[in-house]
């Protein structure tokens, strides 16, 4: 990758979201200018402690390096120089990212030791460099395959996956228009109201692709009212969006609509590919059948339509992994129920890359968004424990799950699917994290020790 491409990636405002370690929550409070001459105010939360940090960008040289210095924040002083160094040969172009940090902690060496500053910096920059390299490889593959900048309409933009997808697409030069349930505040938003069947795409302009991720969470106890909300949030929004894009005078080329591996129901160890039949009973198969059927208007209009059957997305910022991490670190976690139920997982980065790839790949119909190597619930819990150095031997009994969560606990926690990404693999998609331990180490900031 050229030094120019490396610099361009870091120049995008979205790069800040992509490069923030997921185990440290970061919120942008203010932003002005750019990475060469600008100012950013962040709230960084780590270990339950929130810190306000003002970064001042001055003294850089465009395309070569930029510098951020702490204005106000937790350090006595901080200066971070990002330098983009061209490789020795023009073909193939290579480059090196050099990060130089000069810092001084409060209370000197004692403050540095108590705050484990060097350890946190090493974890953070190992993650940043790995994600930078892979993001750039994915963007480069898109360009080499003949892809150009796209205009992507996105629902579920504020969700866990949506935020990372927006940041990744924007860092590659694509334009993302977010569907919002209020009056739009700028040109990058479009209004819709799925519950009342309203959507306004007139101001949006031409759209190359649509990604639909919105839907009520299923991870709450299912009352009859809650079940109705879950179905309506998926069926109504999908039917509305599919119909709206089908009616556009210039239709998008592709519609990627979220679904879930719940489509397959509880099937034990049976290997489940996209050709497998839906589950015969249970609430989740019903939800997924109705969810996927609601995309029909787009398919009938000739729009390439993908039903993305998503597994458990691994993110330290939220979802199952973040919820399980607290009891694991406390040493009070273990398998759920028997622990034999299959756990179809996917790394956050691989889900983002898969969606991006599907925007131009010649793939339609159902696609399992799961890693190639699903594991049992017991092995998943052991995997987390191994990475963070904690035992995972205290089980959560099945009767307790059913008592606490009812049918939701049974279908979501005690049952599973041995779903594999047959279509993605056969069509040439490459997973960055095909094995669980590597995915967990990347997401939790515990890289393998080097000899």
Account of the 3D structure:
The structure is a single chain. β7, α5 (160-171) and β8 form a beta-alpha-beta unit. With 451 residues, the protein is α/β, with parallel strands linked by helices. α5 crosses α10 (348-358) and α6 (224-246) runs parallel beside α7. Strands 10-9-8-7-11-12-14-18 form an eight-stranded mixed sheet, with helices on both faces. Strands 1-2-3-4-5-6 form a six-stranded antiparallel sheet. The protein has a two-stranded parallel ribbon with strand order 13-20. It is built from 14 helices and 20 strands. It has helices at 3-11, 15-19, 108-114, 117-144, 160-171, 224-246, 283-293, 296-300, 319-329, 348-358, 377-388, 398-414, 422-426, 436-444, and strands at 25-33, 38-46, 49-57, 65-70, 77-86, 95-104, 151-155, 175-180, 189-193, 198-199, 209-212, 254-260, 271-272, 304-310, 312-314, 342-343, 345-347, 365-369, 375-376, 418-419. The protein folds into two domains: 3-139, START domain (Alpha-D-Glucose-1,6-Bisphosphate, Chain A, domain 4), CATH 3.30.530.20; 148-444, NAD(P)-binding Rossmann-like Domain (Rossmann fold, 3-Layer(aba) Sandwich).
Task: For the structure shown, list the relevant keywords.
451 residues; Rossmann fold; 2 domains; single chain; Alpha-D-Glucose-1,6-Bisphosphate, Chain A, domain 4; alpha/beta; 37% helix; 24% strand; 20 strands; six-stranded antiparallel β-sheet
CATH-derived topology of the largest domain: Rossmann fold
Number of helices: 14
State Rg.
23 Å
CATH class of the largest domain: Alpha Beta
CATH architecture of the largest domain: 3-Layer(aba) Sandwich
Task: Provide the domain count.
Answer: 2
CATH superfamily of the largest domain: NAD(P)-binding Rossmann-like Domain
**What's the shape?**
globular
Q: What is the first-to-last residue Cα distance?
A: 27 Å
Please identify the structural class as seen in this structure. Answer: alpha/beta
Main sheet: strands, sense, barrel: 8 strands, mixed
* SS strand fraction: 15-25%
Mean pLDDT: 92
Low-confidence stretches: none
* Total number of strands: 20
